[in-house]
Design a protein that fits this description.
single chain, alpha+beta, 29% strand
Length: 85
């Protein structure tokens, strides 16, 4: 556990892009993400979405919905479980 925490702490302050349709998207503005138990501690910085990025994300989501809605629930569940790992 201590090793895992040390590894995570070593990544504090890293910058993370938005991901839209599987593509990494960087913007000019970064938003700090803080440790909720220590709000002065910045865990990382996330690219902030503006209207163009939000519109693009909604467009990509709408395009993916048709296929996803026809995907058997077992396959959907397997995808969601894979994200938890």
């Amino acid at each position: 556990m201590r090793t895992a925490l040390r590894e995570v702490r070593n990544r504090f302050g890293e910058k993370y892009p938005l991901v839209i349709g599987g593509e990494k998207v960087w913007t000019d503005k970064l938003t700090p993400s803080v440790n909720p138990s220590a709000p002065k501690e910045v865990v990382g910085y996330v690219a902030e979405a503006g209207i163009p990025e939000a519109e693009r994300a909604v467009k990509v989501a709408r395009a993916a919905f048709d296929k996803w809605s026809r995907t058997p629930f077992e396959e959907r569940l397997a995808c969601l479980n894979a994200l938890r790992r």
